[in-house]
Predict the structure.
Amino acid sequence: MVPVRRIILLVFCYFLLLPSNKVTGDSASFHEPIPISSMQAVYHHEQGDTPLRVSSTMRQEVSMVLSEIHQLSGLNSLQLPASYYHVHFPTPVVLTLFSPVRHPIDEIIVTLPHNAWDEYHLLIKNQHNQWIEYKTHRTLSIFVNQVTAWNTMQPR
């Protein structure tokens, strides 16, 4: 009888503590997607700007990337790289209270790595028109692969 009581007590404690992780944002596996009504994307490169087609799966991926931002990485006062993906939101995106981004998001940039060992970087424009780098738990390569695949498959 005693082991059954312990099991019941453990299960009760588990369900008691589970919602508190979701409310405080401590759980890394629980991230609600941020609603994004529309977005416009442009590939900026040395030859100029190329407008990109945006699919609902790309909007969903950007939503997941933004919802999993966990750390401010620093101010990017340097010049922007030669090629990057620039995303503009006609309706500003507002993140949760637990996000390190404390302002509505109008524009983001995903920079491309210089070589295979570098990583992608997420830059968000703040209210002072400065590009700030943020870290996210979600990889940015999924978004870049979706943009590349969608725009090479679709005829213009």
Notes: The mean pLDDT is 83. The chain has three helices and seven strands. The chain has two domains: 1-26, 31-153. The helical segments are 2-24, 56-67, 141-153.
